[in-house]
Write a structure and sequence with these properties.
single chain; 268 residues; mainly alpha; 12 helices
């Protein structure tokens, strides 16, 4: 999980570094870089391409594509650490959506944890003038869509191979981003390296992320995903000179504490 978080953090860093590119072009290279690796593997291993639940797989693909596009858009507009922290509110929405659509029980301390995380998000928005209202709405919408994706993946359970689910995400992202082709520009020089790294790092993160959940309990490995925020804060400070006020850090801490309390509540 630590390797996965590190890879995702670098992927987000590349997306911010390429802020001269249209966000949809960044989405394309993120998806295509992963697709060229997993699709041939699926063919060789005879892993289903279409799957049985193609409707829900398609919905998952669309929601993931839109969420990623919104996230990359916001990453180019506000500090990297703030974008990552606010997107970590996704479990809030997944718990609420699972409560209504999957009829999952939500314990008292889970509701408390969600309130804590929401308060943290609004503290970050209200006290950090670099987070404009438009960016805040976009990143919260991105988190909402990620929460919906969590619920869909949970609904699919073991009905589909995890690579089939990931492949739908990549295909819809590739196709969707092509609609914005007229906003693209040709990469120059070292930019080819950075756009290549986005897809490669996304693949590495996805593989290690999945393997971590296969090897250990969710309650043990999930909290380590929040190291991505630590990496983002360090990268943002060292490479972009991003600094944060005490209140911004406090808001981030509340978001993380809220999500960790949610995990602990579900575990017990």
């Amino acid at each position: 999980m630590l390797i996965a978080a590190f890879a995702f953090a670098w992927m987000n860093l590349m997306a911010k570094y390429l802020q001269d590119f249209h966000p949809m072009q960044v989405v394309f290279f993120r998806a295509f870089g992963t697709f060229v690796f997993i699709f041939p593997y699926m063919i060789v291993k005879k892993i289903p391409i279409i799957g049985k639940n193609y409707r829900w797989l398609s919905v998952r693909g669309v929601l993931s594509f839109v969420s990623l596009a919104l996230f990359f858009t916001v990453v180019q507009r506000i500090p990297l650490g703030s974008a990552v922290a606010l997107r970590y509110t996704a479990p809030i929405f997944s718990v609420v959506l699972a409560y209504f659509f999957l009829k999952e029980k939500v314990k008292f301390w889970q509701w408390i944890s969600l309130i804590i995380a929401v308060v943290g998000a609004f503290i970050m928005k209200g006290l950090d003038l670099r987070i404009d209202t438009y960016s805040f709405i976009l990143i919260m919408l991105s988190a909402l869509l990620v929460g919906a994706v969590f619920v869909i993946v949970r609904y699919l359970g073991n009905k589909e191979h995890f690579l089939t689910i990931i492949n739908y995400f990549m295909v819809f992202s590739i196709v969707g981003s092509l609609f914005f082709l007229n906003h693209w520009r040709m990469p120059l020089g070292d930019e080819w390296i950075w756009i290549g790294l986005i897809g490669t790092l996304g693949l590495v993160g996805q593989v290690f992320f999945t393997k971590s959940f296969q090897m250990a309990e969710t309650s043990l490995v999930a909290p380590l995903k929040y190291m991505e925020l630590v990496y983002a804060l360090i990268f943002g400070y060292v490479l972009f000179g991003e600094t944060y006020s005490v209140w911004s850090i406090f808001g981030m801490i509340l978001v993380v504490v809220g999500m960790l309390l949610n995990i602990a509540a579900k575990r017990h």
